[in-house]
Amino acid sequence: MSEYKKNSLSLIGAVSLGTGVMIGAGIFALLGQVAEFAGDLFPFAFLGGAVIAGFSSYSYIKMSNAFPSAGGIAMYLQKAYGKSTFTAFAALLMALSMIINESLVARTFGTYTLQLFDVPESSVWVPILGVALIGVAFLVNISGNNFIEKSSFVMAVLKISGITVFAIGGLWVAGFSLDKIVPSALPDKSGTDYLSALALSILAYKGFTTITNSGGEIKEPKKNVGRAIVISLVICTVVYMLVAFAVSANLSIGEIVKARDYSMAEAARPAFGQYGLWFTVGIAIIATVSGIIASIFAVSRMTAMLTDMKLIPYSELGLPGNVQQHMLVYVAAIAILLTVFLDLSRIASMGAIFYLVMDIGTHWGVLKNLREEIKPNVLVVSIAILLDAVILGAFIWMKASQDIFIIIVSASIMALILGGEKWFLSRQPQSD
Predict the structure, then answer these.
(1) Less Cβ crowding at N or C end of the chain, within 10 Å?
(2) Domains: count for the chain
(3) Is the separation of the CB atoms in 149 and 13 below 8 Å?
(4) pTM
């Protein structure tokens, strides 16, 4: 890991990384929370999230084709905005949203694992197990790309197969039929609730950016980055819809919300009994492990690139090894802190806010500064900006009325990053 290795990731490896991040966080960590906002229509919230992610991915694919780089989004932002405060700000928001995703998956791992034991849901073992998982993922990432690609592929196959078996079996046991896809009556939810559900469902798909962050290491990146993103999004959409319908067929919305942090495991009880519970928890463990490994793999390279680009301050703090290994330490440390001190709902909310702000900035950079260079479809990019802005506004409005603390924390962190980067870059001779 001393330096980037071109052609070290195949198309299959890139798809494995993308689905590893998405499925690890998406269906296990977010299903219950999305159901809480969208009610009986929550399976369609995941479909809506896929549509929004599809519009969003367009800008990243266009930039990946033009500027394949191991720096991924950091490099794209610099192409759009130069070495500016906003470039550093947006890149760090992306990095933080990825680290937040790691803590989200880590706590999900702890929550699902404890379903095998007679332990209270609020047990201290949830963060303890989450921290242990982050430690294991850190050690795996030290081993290098080749091992990561092989392990990611094996775990991706296992979890996608396992989740598909759970979904199809759950639908069959519940006697699910096509006429049950759309509920007979719409749930008593507001437009803000549905938009908030979409904001969280987007987190289930944002793992496609993991692929762009490894663009310089993927074989034939101008062709395979876009293919890997599209394939990953399609696979995840199918898996999410199957699972969402399977859970809704076996549990009421009230039961899903009550068990929102482990709803798939809860749905396995009436459908398959104790053996089904063990099977589901086993798949959850595989999914969360692979999700953490893939996410740390991507964010460590992104932050190392930010250091190479002199966009963020850096100190080795006396640690042995190279810059990327130091970044693995920092990333794991931040993820551990979030895992210990925040619950799943707040972690997901902060991740959604950071990601949507960064995403809007990226699309705007494509329209404003890269239109002539990469020749994007202006309508598609404009729709992506509009969708992000509407969903972000509704989500902030909802959270401001229900949990103002997370809005204050998110705004404070963004203000700190913006101010800190402005000060740091003002001391750099090449800043704009």
Answers:
(1) C
(2) 1
(3) yes
(4) 0.85
